[in-house]
Specification:
Blueprint (H helix, E strand, L loop, with lengths): L1 E5 L3 H13 L3 E5 L2 H10 L4 E5 L1 E2 L2 E2 H10 L6 E5 L4 H10 L3 E4 L4 H13 L9 E3 L2 E4 L4 E4 L2 E2 L4 H12 L7 H8 L11 H13 L4 E6 L3 E6 L2
């Protein structure tokens, strides 16, 4: 999952992003509306975490803009002051959820996973395919009841593939889902390495990751 956090409280944002990283969530940070517009012009996101009060205006203005152009990216509004009127206005403009500061990081992550599930093929928090079971919340997978030893990146990649099981995902799409702009030192070919590692760990099971030449990778049941 790749998220854009639009928040000008640097300490708060950096703490959230650090914890996101441990949970396999890639997150870019924009400290203003203009910075957010720049990010959105060049990168797609699975979800946005949008503060209402920003240095150059209201987060509601950006929400109005993206919905007006037909962008349905899930948006979670975030603010220290959230009256009933604020909530109603944000939801009416197209926000998908809201969270009031201070908040628990676990709740923020759970709400984001719930928003992303709405557009995924599998709606349950546990993803299943054949003998394979994966929990995004725990970043843990089992194969025929036996726990797989996965790194954080491998787990995040597996979750992304499973959310779109039987659909080919390009190498670029997988890269965008795993890495933020701060990970610029990681090349696109890293995806091939992680795919190879996952294939090795899934070997002998009824789940395979196929390469569709010129298209991308697809996870499916073998036979």
């Amino acid at each position: 999952m790749r998220v854009l956090m639009i928040e000008d409280a640097t300490d708060l944002a950096e703490g959230v992003i650090a914890r996101f990283s441990k949970s396999g969530i890639a997150c870019d940070l924009a400290g203003s509306l203009d910075a957010a517009r720049d990010h959105l012009a060049v990168q797609g996101y699975d979800a946005l975490v949008l503060d209402i009060n920003l240095p150059d205006g209201s987060g509601r203005d950006l929400l109005r803009e993206i919905r007006a152009r037909g962008d349905r990216t899930p948006v979670l509004m975030l603010t220290a002051l959230f009256t009933i009127d604020d909530r109603v206005a944000a939801l009416d403009l197209g926000a998908d959820d809201y969270l009031v500061k201070p908040f628990d990081q676990r709740e923020l992550e759970a709400r984001l996973r719930a928003l992303v599930r709405r557009d995924a093929e599998q709606k349950s928090d546990e993803l299943a395919l054949g003998q394979l079971r994966y929990s995004p919340a725990q970043m843990q997978a089992t194969l025929d009841g036996n726990r797989l030893d996965l790194t954080r990146r491998e787990a995040a990649l597996l979750g992304l593939l499973l959310r779109h099981a039987d659909q080919p995902l390009s190498k670029e799409r997988l890269y965008d889902g795993l890495f933020a702009f701060n990970d610029a030192d990681v090349g696109l070919n890293a995806i091939e390495l992680y795919i190879a590692r996952l294939r090795k760990k899934l070997a002998g099971s009824d789940v395979v990751i196929l390469t569709q030449r010129g298209v991308g990778y697809r996870i499916t049941r073998d036979g």
